[in-house]
Every structure is written in C-alpha cells, then in structure tokens.
Amino acid sequence: MNPNEATDSEWADDAPTPTPETHFVNWLEIAAIIEILSLKWVLPVLALLDNGALRHSQLARALRIDAKQLSRILRRLQEKHVVLRDVDGSQRPVQVRYHLTPAGRDLVAILADLGSWRRHGPAEADPGPADADPVTPRPRSPF
Fold it and tell me: Domains in the chain, start-ordered, CATH in brackets?
C-alpha cells in the first residue's frame, strides 16, 4: 500500500505521515552530541577551553583529573570536531595545546544559552512539589 494513499479508517490521524529523511538524521546527530556531553569531564573541559588554549598538563591540573582519563575525553572531543589539538614542533619539548574549534565555540554558546534558559525559563513551568529534590543525572563513564 502506498503511504500517501487515503485509507478507509474512521480516524483521519491513522494515515501515515511522510517524514523527510533529514528529520531523522538531524535528531541522530543531536543525540550523538548529547551522548558526548553527558560524559563526566566534558563540560568542565569545554568550560576551561572556552577561556583559551591550554596544554594537557594545565587541563589535568585545573580539573584534578587523571592524565589517561583526560586524554580519552580530549580524543572523543577531537573525533566530534569540538576540540583541536595543535602541535608546535619548533620547540623542545614539543608544545601541544588544545583549543575549541569554531563548532566547539558554537557548542559552548549553545550550552550557555541552555543554562540561561534553565535559570530564566518559562514562568508558567510547573516547578513540582516544594519538597522534591531535583533529580541530577549521574554521568555515564565512557569506558
């Protein structure tokens, strides 16, 4: 049966709604970014890199994070083109710095807008019971 043909159902909403394929692709891309953002150290790393390029040791020291774990997070962010690793081989020892890509800066701006929306969200939103604790999702370990 052709999805665009009319059906003899008594409910008008029973007819299949054609959905552009790009609709699903966009949501899958967003879900992939949300998955990366939900990793434990990603948001603090992005916040630090938003202030400028930093070396691996500077990031590890500022976050008090294990170097191996930080390397994994930075690698994931590089794979998603959020962070760029610059290697300056003209000096000894070799200088490696991490900074946000233009897409990474855009992402940080979106996250800032999201935080602002959360603080100043719609007034008609129901805050829930006064004695209820907000549920804070625990970050999933990427490994």
Answer: 35-115 (1.10.10.10)
